[in-house]
């Protein structure tokens, strides 16, 4: 996997992760993340392996990748491809979903007009921060579009939304700690096994995977090209540099070094 001077990722302002990327060849290795990836293909052919099949998206089509689903990314025609993407946390959709299981789009690529409108509201303009009422409305519209198109993954027991929210808040507050199911059981007031099943139903990943991603958030925020990876690993809760690198590649399909090279100023 290699990147030339025409490969780049440019991030939008604000805390909500949105970006535009220009990549070529085999851009990403197989990986899983804890968010929905909502993308619009801008140029070229954006191809990826997903749920046992090759999928292809051309300009104007919407890509929807479900949390914790293995996928990769590459140019479908051997040339550069460009896309805009938002990483949407399942927790951001739960206010609209009301505790229902996450909607699932098995195809991964869509031409649906309502979903296109919702995606455009998220990533149509990456020059401005998306916040306040505009952000809230974008999440509501996206949740409704996904629910209309997708199916809910089966979960037969009732999920306690409040218990999951309490467990998530505890992990958010202690990402570099050795969080155990005992801790989550205590703060949520729910049996650990029922909590774990409900956590995955509402947020798409297990509590442990959610914890790893919060540590990776800390690590990425520290990657400035100057701070040693070993220091970043220790500060973000990983045992050592190799532990960080292994989880980083599993989550993003890139090594920390590749990620830092891509996240540079866009060429004029």
TrEMBL record:
Presence of keyword Transcription regulation: yes
Name the record gives this protein: AraC family transcriptional regulator
Domain of life assignment: Bacteria
SMART domains in the record: HTH_ARAC
Start and end residues of each HTH araC/xylS-type domain: 165-262
Keywords: Activator, DNA-binding, Transcription, Transcription regulation
A GO molecular-function annotation: sequence-specific DNA binding
The keyword Transcription regulation is annotated on this UniProt entry: yes
InterPro entries, A to Z: AraC-bd, AraC_XylS_family_regulators, Homeodomain-like_sf, HTH-like, HTH_AraC, HTH_AraC-typ_CS
Pfam families: AraC_binding, HTH_18
